[in-house]
Amino acid sequence: MPAGLWVTFEGGDGSGKTTQAALLESWLRECGRTVVRTREPGGTDVGNLVRDIVLHHRGEVAPRAEALLYAADRAHHVATLVRPALARGDVVIQDRYLDSSVAYQGAGRVLDAGEIRDLSLWAAEGALPDVTVLLDLDPASARRRLDAADKPFDRLEAEKAEFHERVRGAFLDLADAEPDRFLVLDASLPVEHLAAAVRARVALALGVSVGGTA
Predict the structure, then answer these.
(1) How far does CA 64 lie from the centroid of its chain?
(2) What residues have CB less than 8 Å from 72, skipping those under 6 apart?
(3) Phi/psi at 10 (nearest 5 deg)?
(4) What confidence score (pLDDT) does residue 120 get?
């Protein structure tokens, strides 16, 4: 049985995480790997209920309550979906994980980043991804992409530019602190250029050539 691999995608809203996750999934399936594609918040029935609260609730959610809701989703998600998939030897491709909580609830909501990270690690029993792809994009460019999508903003997307600047800075700080886990890419580059860089990093983690069987 091949070893499982856990790949997460991080970055601000509008950075292209969904596109790159889909392209990576397609390549891995062509290589014969079983892939589990998931997201946080969400990914499970419980997670989708949490997602509706944290992203679409019309009233105020206190910052600490928001952080606890994300951690609750994370605890259930890792225990019931991620760990079993990795134990089977699957490749898990995940849109957002604890780094998003540190960036959005820590820096964005101006809570203690260390406490947010510790909370998430406790919830997930210390689980960390093998590879984290950070798609870095300045907030102004990201906002133009979101505007072009012509759909309603969720609670986080609707935050002011200063909020998203703090989030971006936090992501870059996290990547600087863990260079072995993070692959930082300029999200303004062409989609296929980014996809090739992601494939190369994942192939390295799997111990195969990009053109070989993953």
Answers:
(1) 20
(2) 50, 123
(3) -130, 165
(4) 97
